[in-house]
Amino acid sequence: MAKQNVAEQFVDILARAGVKRLYGVVGDSLNPVVDAIRRNSAIDWIHVRHEETAAFAAGAEAQVTGSLAACAGSCGPGNLHLINGLYDAHRSMAPVLALASHIPSSEIGLGYFQATHPELLFQECSHYNEMISNPEQMPRLLQTAIQHAIGRGGVSVVSMPGDIASKPAPEKSIEHALVTARPTVRPGDDEIDKLCRMVDEAKRVTLFCGSGTAGAHAEVMEFAEKIKSPVGHALRGKEWIQYDNPYDVGMSGLLGYGAAYEATHECDLLVLLGTDFPYNAFLPDDVKIVQVDVRPEHLGRRSKLDLAIWGDVRETLRCLTPRVKPKSDRKFLDRMLKKHANALEGVVKAYTRKVDKHVPIHPEYVASVLDEMADEDAVFTVDTGMNNVWAARYLTPNGKRRVIGSFSHGSMANALPQAIGAQFTDLNRQVVAMSGDGGFSMLMGDFLTLVQHDLPVKVVLFNNSSLGMVELEMLVAGLPSYGTTNENTDYAAIARAAGAYGVRVEKPKQLQGALKDAFKHKGPALVDVVTDPNALSIPPKISADMVTGFALSASKIVLDGGVGRMLQMARSNLRNVPRP
Q1: What's the pLDDT at 469?
Q2: Cβ distance 17 to 178 under 8 Å?
Q3: At residue 135, what are phi and psi to the nearest 5 degrees?
Q4: Per-residue b or e along 132-141, where b marks 16 or more CB atoms closer than 10 Å to that residue's CB
């Protein structure tokens, strides 16, 4: 039997860790690893057009499956292109292993062609970042990297010179059992007792939920019912907590809606569950705050805490709920539910007025129709910018759908590459990329990846010929928009030229038919919808000094952009309010 080289051993270990595919662009120092993949039936090489796409795709795959995903880049510029997608995966806590192949080991430090220092470049966007400079480091170094990515939730980077990859693997290397799943973390009894006392003593408790409530929907609902608490959420908590939620009061933050802002400010005790919500300007500073998070470094980053709980949300609530005293007073909860419904009533008109005649098309209307026509278990990938608004306001979660975006890192051009990774996990599941024309055009080359691999991703392009969110930022800051216009482009024609299905929609009455035909098409499809760049109206009370980046120092409803089916949910929840 032929002796393995390091590249072959590297690929074998990835496969043993559950990695199904490696996204990347071939080249020089990476070639030994790609050739090892060619000869290994357990793992596939996924050729993309840009390494940034490879990292985004791996991050999306990891978020959909909850398992380790991987990407790779060749030496120098090749692996350097990975960095933006790796930042996104790391900040999304997606377990990703990145291979940064390197220049010949004998040339490191000598200013060689394409020389960089991967061990420095990726330091900030990884839990583990080391170089294999000797075959004897294998397989222990790779196993350690894998366990960091899975165990801590995020990115590990392994650098490896191409000549090292071609060398024989060590004969008596130690391969141990790999950690491929994370444990749950239960707080200590003392912390649970303290939290129990605080909940019992508070008359008005509000729960504010983030992505850390994934898998804990039932526990959150049981706890909210017992203490009669309104439940708000951050954008990353929407898909996990908004559905089947009779206590829902909406979302806080720049894209917020409903009564979440009031609920978090008018309570006696605010309990932050699994959220690293970044905008501290939206959090109160005059109520008691408890934060529960599985990542201790997140505790207290955004606000002063009265109690910090290091633990998994699901396990924490399983311990806490049986101990707290049930509350019978619903006054606070019912008042917030009414405020929530009233707030949504006030903005729903934004996309219902003359939508069948309005040209350019209301983007709110596009998002609403898309939400109704998409599959019950669809995966939506959402571009940063105005598409975040439409996803936050119009996509209806149900416990089966997934919504993935660059919600923590805030990168442009994420939707298309994330759709690639999401689609590879299940070719029969509907994957819809909600793209803006700015983001789509930035990494448009990887639309060819959809065609080459015959991935049935459906790109719904909100084409307002501008960088809409940037124009909004300038407007709120009192600046004239400048440098934000994209020359009008027929992206449907580009899609057809690439060999995919493409249709352009310029009138509202064309929209439903275009989406229906695209969804029926077996391969990749692009629906280029010409939307109104002036769709949003800004409340006049918002002034430039209220804005710091994306955070507003005060505002209950930031964007008057409609709310889709959420109004129906709010009206339904009002039925839980006892009549006098």
Answers
A1: 74
A2: yes
A3: -55, -25
A4: beebebbbeb
On whether the CB atoms of residues 9 and 169 are closer than 8 A, the answer is yes
C-alpha radius of gyration, the chain, whole number: 25
User: Where is average pLDDT lowest: 11-25, 269-283, 371-385, 451-465?
Assistant: 269-283
Q: Can you state the angle between helices 217-227 and 313-320, rounded to 10 degrees?
A: 40
Q: For residue 452, give the H/E element and its range.
A: helix 447-453
Q: Which range has the worst mean pLDDT, 56-65, 78-87, 343-352, 494-503?
A: 343-352
DSSP assignment of 378-434: -EEEE-SSHHHHHHHHH----SS-EEEE-TTT--SS-HHHHHHHHHHH-TTS-EEEE
Q: What is the pLDDT of residue 98?
A: 98
Amino acid, single-letter form, for residue 503:
V
List, edge to edge, every strand of the sheet that includes 379-382.
402-405, 379-382, 431-436, 458-463, 525-530, 501-505
Q: Which residues does residue 128 pair with via DSSP β-bridges, in sequence order?
A: 156
Q: What is the pLDDT of residue 4?
A: 92
Q: In 10 A of CB 22, how many CB atoms?
A: 25
Model confidence at 301: pLDDT above 70: yes
In angstroms, the CA 247 to CA 232 distance is 8
pLDDT of residue 354: 67
Dist CA 491 CA 435 (whole Å)? 12
The position carrying tokens 């983001």 is 439
Give 294's contacts (C-beta < 8 A, 6+ positions apart).
185, 212, 274, 310, 311, 312, 313
pLDDT of residue 405: 97
* 363 and 505 Cβ atoms separated by less than 8 Å: no
Note the pLDDT of residue 562.
Answer: 60
Residue 358 exposed, middle or buried by CB count within 10 Å (0-12, 13-18, 19+): middle
Listed residue (77, 81, 80) closest to 114, CA to CA: 77
Residues 526, 459 contacting (CB under 8 angstroms): yes
- Torsion sign, CA atoms 572, 573, 574, 580: positive
Query: In terms of DSSP bridges, do strands 155-161 and 96-102 run parallel, antiparallel, or are they unpaired?
Result: parallel
pLDDT of residue 548: 39
Between 345 and 28, name the one with better pLDDT.
28
Taken in order 347, 348, 353, 355, the sign of the CA dihedral is positive
Asked whether the beta carbons of 76 and 107 are under 8 A apart, the reply is: no
What span, in angstroms and rounded, lies between the C-alpha atoms of 426 and 179? 24
As a whole number, mean pLDDT of residues 337-355 equals: 73
Per-residue CA distances from 53 to 153, 267, 413, 414 (Å): 20, 43, 9, 8
pLDDT of 555 > 60? The answer is no
Who's near 88: CB < 8 A, 6+ residues apart?
55, 56, 59, 406, 408, 409, 411, 414
Give whole-number Cα distances, 470 to 165, 295, 490, 550, in Å: 45, 32, 22, 11
Predicted TM-score of the model (pTM): 0.92
10 Å CB burial of residue 142 (0-12, 13-18, 19+) is buried
CA angle 147, 150, 155 (to 5 degrees): 95
For residue 539, name the pLDDT band (cuts at 50, 70, 90): very low
